[in-house]
């Protein structure tokens, strides 16, 4: 059960990181 939570947590962090990087890229394009 615990490993399941850790796996979900890693997946969530990965999604957030991917989203934030994509978002910052959009902001960079917007500023230019």
Tag the structure with descriptive keywords.
32 residues; mainly alpha; 94% helix; rod-shaped
Give a brief description.
With 32 residues, the chain is mainly alpha-helical. The protein contains 1 helix and no strands. The N and C termini lie far apart (47 Å).
Could you walk me through the main structural features you see in this protein, from its secondary elements to its overall organization?
- This protein is mainly α.
- It has one helix and no strands.
- It has one helix spanning 2-31.
- The longest helix is centred in the middle third of the chain and has 30 residues, at 2-31.
- The N and C termini lie far apart (47 Å).
Strand content: under 5%
Structural class: mainly alpha
H/I helix tally: 1
Largest sheet: none
How are the SSEs placed, and which strands pair?
Layout: H1 2-31
């Amino acid at each position: 059960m615990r490993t399941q939570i850790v796996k979900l947590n890693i997946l969530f962090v990965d999604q957030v990181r991917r989203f934030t990087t994509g978002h910052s890229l959009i902001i960079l394009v917007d500023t230019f």
